[in-house]
Design brief:
Radius of gyration of chain A: 23 Å
Shape of chain A: globular
Strand content of chain A: 15-25%
Helix content of chain A: 25-40%
Distance between the termini of chain A: 75 Å
Structural class of chain A: alpha/beta
Mean pLDDT of chain A: 94
Largest sheet of chain A: 8 strands, mixed
Oligomer: homodimer
Number of helices of chain A: 16
Chain lengths: 537, 537
């Protein structure tokens, strides 16, 4: 009745190349210089990548591991791999060696494509990666690093390859990408994105009340493409015909600032990046001349960051929440009419929530018995998700990752209000339960970080004979400062009931982090235990 | 790997009811009073409609004909029918009796749902509709009109039915709706929309550079739901969580103005509606207090209408083009960066194009040999389309409606520029070809209508011994006015080469129209022939 139109990611790039051919796609290369391309240019080069991979024997369904920074070349690889019918397995260079070995072997990566500065990682690991047949270094032959490995360069891959062949076609439910979650326990688990799930995710994420990307935007993803599907920005941008700036590997505040000033209107990163950027702007009395919006996710965004962007720089903050398992968008905090109707100063409270889901994502909160809890803005429950781009089963898993009714347990604890705004209050594994009641560690940490001398904070549960657990707060001070715990307690007293306040606030030199930069509460609790920590009387 | 999430239209309404439960859905009822509902309310009532239809024996795949104005109740029916697994066949009350009989029988409508004032149409036709088992009148028993037909009322359909049962589920490629095209020759042809095509269409149409609907909008579709899938607004609005105002059956300018002033920010209709509205506003010195944007399609929009909305009322015009066969969106004229870069006064020229397609629609222009023509903004060719919501085969047709490469011939003649902006210059059937060159009848008509004393204009070809064809221009003057043909010719001289100018400009009392309100050039040419019209020397 209607035409057959498989939802394949190549079609997104085709749309951009055909209807936004000259839209700039810019970026810093790993070799240093700024590269200037367009959507038509990216499409042509991606077609060469696809043809080059096929010439090297890549067949439909083969998996290719990619460890690369956010560059224009990475975009060409991002589309070239699925364009050859293969599967793009993103590799995080910060993973521990054992984890990398596990996931490359588990996903059965046939080829590795790697930025030249990251090649040493594979020099160390190759003896443990028996399935990897070939390493392609994402630089040209004349900038190739010295290596004992047998490798080919990017120009050897694409030179002489046609730039106008159709993408490998197939069913929309074929795999397109793999991203592993770095669980704090057990082996990493592979999430397999399909062509369909990626296209539907980009379509729903790009909506006006979500990421709201237009062809008049120039977006810079600071979030790496290897983090949680790169927050889908490499799909959303060409879908909208938006211009892009790829920042390269320099994640320093001065480096990113230089890239932001290349006409970027929209950017996206985890909160810690913005803490550093805001300090850099203030210290050097710099402004943001074109930036209008910033998408913040990956961890709860402190109120101080939202206020600084909006009040000092006129940049709108969109607080978001997602997971690798959700492709990754779960919610975005845009303002529905109910929020626009309240006084501007109260809207900041709403911006501490992570907002509401796009079409195709459904959410609920449940108690320990799995019963749905009310959306009253105060009742906390385990956050469960369903959707077109939510995992059903991890790669090679024997069981589904969802319950009998198809709900995926996000591992987060949250409240929801009557308009579906979600406030993440905790991770279910990190929950502090005192006297039978939950205490939000995230809210405690965000409040503490608002203190100008606090760099980072972590609230964890310590066993207590009467209350079962009591919260304590570990603080990493800003370099050279020693904040007064009493001042921090005063801040907390404004937002917490007395019984919810931490029993102790103490300074630490650093906090343990996971490979994706989150504080490992598990390890912090272990550290306290190892140190023989006891609650003050 | 990823969850199974069939794209069914019921899921759109579920999203609105769950995440925008209290968003107002308002409208004038056919009985007269204003009705106030919400997305949660519409969902509950639509579930009752679905349950009521199933209780009356409706099974998956059954077709139900619906002849109704744009009301809140029609929205409940719009979702209730596919919610029962049935197919919503929209019926245009302005179709000729023979056409109605043909399409109701051809689509095998089992039930008819009809607004009370339109019931007389079926009183006349029922003896010729052997498949119709039941007529449901969309009013309550106490406002039911006298009728000799055996009918049931809307309250009898839904009263006592549960409002919380799941929608009938099934494959996303199952049929959801049918709309017939009223071809100027031959029998009407049925376009069958699937659940998937409607959802994908709404997702792509709602994008920021397309319809750009947000939950902060209140949209009033003046375009009837029975015209070309109601321009998809009944899907786009709940998808975005937007508020709606349904205008009812009063299409007069004062009637629509009253509804616009109910907080409407966005509206959509054919140009003729807006010609009347603009006259009404001017004559009565009225303003538009909340309206921000107007989507204009269904026929080429005169420049004068665009200028009046934008310059006099601060309302942005989005000129659009589509077809019943395209669900219906083909293009929308929003501004890409290339357009924002030119001086504001020149952007008005761009707004006379119908803009560029959404993701999932692909277009090309071809010559009579089917060869692709350049996108240079001047070369005219037959406009061909492909897409996820473009017809493959008409209902019960024996052959596909597309060529061997899958392209659908839109019947329009157009130019395209390098950014994909489409300018419709003619209908291929209405084309004026003089001395081997095409002359744009649409541009000629729009230029003539810019004259304040011209109400409507139609350019048609008249046979010519030397040039094959020559254009003449028929003018319907504004009531009581007699515009000077020389003045109209002066306007045309500014935009047309000398050889393109009409050989004659003459006044007529009216123009022949098709059932959907378009000028029938076929009939106009026939009229001229019947009158023995000859070109002036």
């Amino acid at each position: 009745m209607m035409q057959n139109f498989p939802l394949r990611v190549g079609g997104i790039l085709d749309h951009a190349a055909r209807y936004h051919p000259n839209r700039p796609v810019l970026g810093r290369s790993v070799e240093g210089p700024i590269v200037e391309s367009t959507w038509a240019g990216v499409q042509r080069e991606a077609k060469q990548v696809a043809a080059g991979l096929k010439a090297l024997g890549i067949k439909k369904g083969d998996v290719i591991g990619v460890m690369a920074w956010n560059t224009v070349r990475h975009l060409c690889v991002w589309y070239g791999i699925p364009g050859a019918g293969a599967v793009n397995h993103t590799l995080n260079p910060r993973l521990f060696a054992d984890q990398l070995v596990y996931i490359v072997n588990h996903a059965e990566d046939r080829f590795i494509m790697v930025d030249p500065d990251l090649l040493p990682i594979f020099e160390a690991l190759m003896p443990r990666l028996p399935n990897v047949e070939k390493i392609i270094v994402l630089t040209n032959r004349d900038t190739m690093p010295e290596t004992g490995l047998e490798v080919i360069s990017y120009d050897e891959l694409i030179n002489g390859q046609p730039d106008d062949q159709p993408w490998e076609d197939g069913d929309e439910n074929e795999p397109c990408g793999i991203c592993y979650t770095s669980g704090t326990t057990g082996n990493p688990k592979g999430v397999v994105y399909t062509h369909r799930s990626n296209v539907l995710h980009a379509l729903t994420a790009a909506a006006p009340d979500m990421v709201n990307l237009s062809s008049n935007d120039r977006i810079m993803p600071v979030v790496p493409l290897f983090h949680a599907n790169g927050w889908s920005i490499a799909y959303c941008a060409p879908l909208a015909g938006a211009s892009m700036v790829m920042p390269g590997r320099d994640m320093s505040a001065p480096g990113l600032y230089e890239m932001l000033e290349m006409g970027v209107t929209y950017t996206a990163a985890v909160p810690t990046i913005w803490l550093g950027m805001l300090q850099h702007l203030e210290a050097n009395k710099l402004g943001l001349s074109t930036l209008k919006r910033v998408l913040i996710g990956g961890a709860s965004c402190p109120r101080a960051v939202i206020e600084a962007f909006q009040n000092n720089y006129g940049v709108q903050v969109l607080h978001a929440w997602g997971m690798t398992e959700m492709s990754p968008l779960g919610t975005i905090c845009s303002f529905k009419p109910e929020v626009n109707a309240i006084p501007p100063e109260e809207r900041l409270d709403v911006q501490e929530t992570v907002g509401h889901p796009p079409y195709s994502v459904d959410l609920k909160i449940v108690n320990d018995l799995g019963e749905s809890l009310p959306w009253d803005g105060t009742t906390q429950g385990r956050l469960m998700a369903k959707g077109a781009a939510v995992v059903q089963r991890y790669l090679k898993a024997e069981e589904d990752a969802v319950d009998s009714e198809g709900w995926f347990d996000t591992g987060d604890v949250a409240t929801m209000d009557e308009n579906g705004y979600v406030r993440i209050t905790d991770r279910s594994k990190d929950v502090i339960k005192s006297g039978g009641e939950w205490i939000s560690s995230i809210e405690m940490e965000n409040t503490a970080v608002a203190h100008p001398e606090v760099l980072e904070a972590a609230a964890v549960a310590v066993p207590h004979p009467k209350w079962d657990e009591r919260p304590v707060l570990a603080i990493v001070p800003v370099d050279g400062k020693s904040p007064d715990p009493a001042d921090i307690m005063s801040l907390l007293e404004k937002r917490f009931a007395k019984w919810q306040l931490p029993d102790d606030i103490f300074m630490v030199e650093d906090l343990p982090h996971t490979a994706t930069g989150k504080v490992s509460k598990l390890e912090l609790r272990q550290r306290l235990k190892d140190q023989g920590y006891t609650l003050p009387e």
